């Protein structure tokens, strides 16, 4: 019998099933440096131990997306190795910052199944939870993927489609313990804009662009122990091009958003995400944001912005999300809906 | 007189000579992260401080190959700067894990010399020993290289050819102090296979492939302070291609072997290694393994597998090592013979 | 109003103005590893905690250029985002080594202004000072850049041209507290050459070459949070080529200078620097040095060499700096004038 992991096929999943994902991973200062080399991030909290301590976070957490990518990467061998498509995610909440020395592991529960009418594939919904070495929840999220059936004649399971919120409600956001933005140093953070300066409906062109290289997206994806072979091998796809991990585009866009959202430093939630088009080496990625909503929190000096973060191939100064046909505009790579904390 | 290092030529070596290699190097958490970005490694012990502690290793060691590459890289300026070819290595034993904070230095003793009949080159055998800041042996190995003579008229030295074992005997393996695999968490490690599940003669196709980029192999080789210029400069070779450091292929193959050998986490020895063909950027590297031998150890829950680890350019599902002519099959890049520990 | 940073234009600067640059940045062991992967550095002090302690530096500092690049990168968004050209720097002194855990921030004072006769651009001189989390000065330097005017009709400011020294005087060098090179381990450091072995006027061909890749120079430049878009985007310049950050060439040349200057481990000052030609991916960078001056210091066993460090595209064994027309020879990329400490 083969000793290698064949991944799970649609008929291997059942509602209520719990998957304990390998491999636990300890976050280190090395990850912080690697992240800073891979993405043009300049957010002051993960960049500076002094700044982080000044807002009540000591030791300084790493970028929230480090935790997201590591936790997400764990699920790939069990959930999406045989995926036809990653269809979406929702209800992702960041429960506490991750600091060097934390060891993350991820567990998923199957919360929905629906066989497609073609009988060859099906959609699997899972809710995944990443915990640290003290079994505290670090983040959790729901995700659904379309997966191949191994045997097209296998019977269809009962259809269960979970109800998922369009967005995490503001009152369900979990502000990091101790976070206090009342003495926030705007000069050190790089921009003067605070909660009241952002208006719902406002769009911000983040201006800068980064051209992707194969070496960089592979270094990043490997760092998160994401094993999907389409990212690493020119022999895994008919066009001989390595597909850029969607999370790489998320991190690029997030880092580019510093220019205009330098104070939206901490992620609170990811409400939804769509990868509208694939990205490849040679693409130059730009980003723009739209303020979707605003909310106060009970933490001192802390507000929350709901933001649409859009990554595009080539700069679109018109910041057009969709064409008249309702489809994503041609250059759109990513449409991400998130909550971030900002100083009030 | 030139102040740069011309390297040693064949007539600069004498049997019994001891070479103290520069530069000592401290291993850090940064090296662990860099290794994880460069290679698709997911072995649980170097990945997770929690997992490592659960098997008696606290703090968590870095990948054994980090120590190997660093220790090996030290020898290049003195031993192989003027090498025509790296002919082989043998009797490499890992004596103790390396943890962040350890400072490695390497010393070599010349143990053999044989001038070639052409009078222009000769073979040099050295035994190298890497020690940590407490002067404890971390690893040692023998290696032989073909080196240019500076002066073709220099007299040939007395021929001394050392006896080297085909493989490290199982009873000579040095199990890391404190290693205890009796409570091994197979779910966290990623695979259920244990010592008894592997049979001598069994072959495992590790399935996944990685396409090499120039940036990545240079980053890796530089990290080990390996200075051989053929790896870094398009002007160092007539074909203007950078030659990939053989150790890069070793680490790629080793990391790919996770898929099927996830529990063979710790290297015990490298018995022999041959780089059957050069590798270049653009090559897609795959790996397969053959179980050559099995041995028990006196440590709790710890067995040892002797494995042939083969890296190929392009996937060879037939796992053919040699053609009918006895030569390596066309795609074979690396033929490595090693011992690794596995849970019983 | 746009929330993104438009950068400062010539008329935004006034003599005496102080700019507090974002973002503070904590140096970590991850930066040390990343630096070692990006540059072929083998200097023993930043490489080995044991070696560093043996010369009185405990904990081991990172490469001095890490501090330089981080501190310099901070000034880009405020000083040179709209620069036409980086014209030069001077009087850069390294006041104390940087160790992991140090958080750097940079402040600049405008010390000179001169509008160009075309009325469209002007030259801005700033003196920048980087401090650590204890408000101790880490390094300071002067720099002048040519910057666009926003409004060509804006009145010219009073011309103020600061007096800057051609070189830092030897007696103004600040030897790191505790540095003692009397028990220096030349074997571990890699070369036997000491202060007395170097003669003024001597030139050293550092022999080795490194071919630049886009991925590597972007990783490096990003690590220093340098945001100049010409380094990252193929769409930022008419020729679709990413311009290599000048500091990347400095670090390449400095690392290559190990071969012949292995004991010139610590930078004391940068007296002047000119980037004679742009560098791009595919260029193979070599380096040579000229000893310009020598000086004793009051620290035990510590001398100082003033060195011209020249980076070239392609190797120039003739080590020609300028042609008969007085202009830089065609292959010259960098002409850097520095002071470094060496054992006596």
Automatic annotation (TrEMBL), chains A, B, C:
Gene3D superfamilies: Hotdog Thioesterase. Signal peptide: none annotated. Pfam families: MC_hydratase (PF19315). SUPFAM superfamilies: Thioesterase/thiol ester dehydrase-isomerase. This is MaoC family dehydratase. It comes from Nocardioides imazamoxiresistens.
């Amino acid at each position: 019998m083969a000793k290698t992991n064949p991944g799970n096929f649609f008929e291997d999943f059942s509602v209520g099933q719990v998957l304990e994902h390998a491999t636990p991973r300890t976050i280190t200062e090395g990850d912080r440096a690697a992240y800073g080399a891979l993405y043009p991030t300049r957010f002051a909290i993960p960049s500076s131990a002094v700044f982080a301590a000044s807002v009540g976070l000591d030791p300084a957490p790493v970028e929230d997306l480090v935790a997201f990518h590591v936790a997400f990467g764990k699920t790939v061998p069990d959930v999406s190795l045989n995926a036809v498509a990653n269809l979406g995610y929702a209800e992702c909440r960041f429960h506490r910052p991750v600091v060097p020395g934390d060891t993350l592991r991820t567990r998923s529960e199957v919360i929905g199944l629906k066989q497609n009418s073609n009988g060859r594939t099906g959609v699997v919904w899972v809710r995944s939870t990443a915990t640290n070495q003290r079994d505290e929840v670090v983040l959790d999220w729901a995700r659904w993927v379309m997966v191949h059936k191994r045997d097209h004649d296998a019977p269809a399971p009962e259809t269960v489609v979970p109800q998922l919120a369009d967005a995490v409600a503001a009152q369900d956001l979990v502000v990091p313990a101790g976070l206090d933005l009342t003495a926030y140093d705007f000069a050190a953070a790089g921009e003067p804009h605070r909660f009241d300066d952002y208006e719902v409906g406002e769009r911000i062109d983040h201006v800068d662009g980064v051209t992707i290289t194969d070496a960089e997206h592979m270094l990043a994806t490997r760092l998160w122990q994401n094993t999907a072979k389409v990212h690493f091998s020119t022999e895994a796809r008919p066009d001989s091009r390595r597909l850029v991990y969607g999370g790489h585009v998320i991190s690029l866009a997030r880092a580019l958003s510093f220019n205009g959202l330098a104070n939206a430093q901490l992620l609170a939630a990811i409400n939804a995400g769509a990868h509208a088009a694939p990205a490849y080496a040679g693409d130059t990625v730009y980003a723009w944001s739209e303020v979707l909503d605003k909310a106060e929190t009970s933490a001192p000096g802390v507000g929350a912005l709901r933001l649409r973060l859009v990554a595009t191939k080539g700069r679109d100064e018109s910041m057009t999300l969709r064409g008249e046909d309702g489809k994503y505009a041609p250059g759109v790579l990513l449409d991400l809906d998130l909550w971030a904390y900002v100083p009030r």
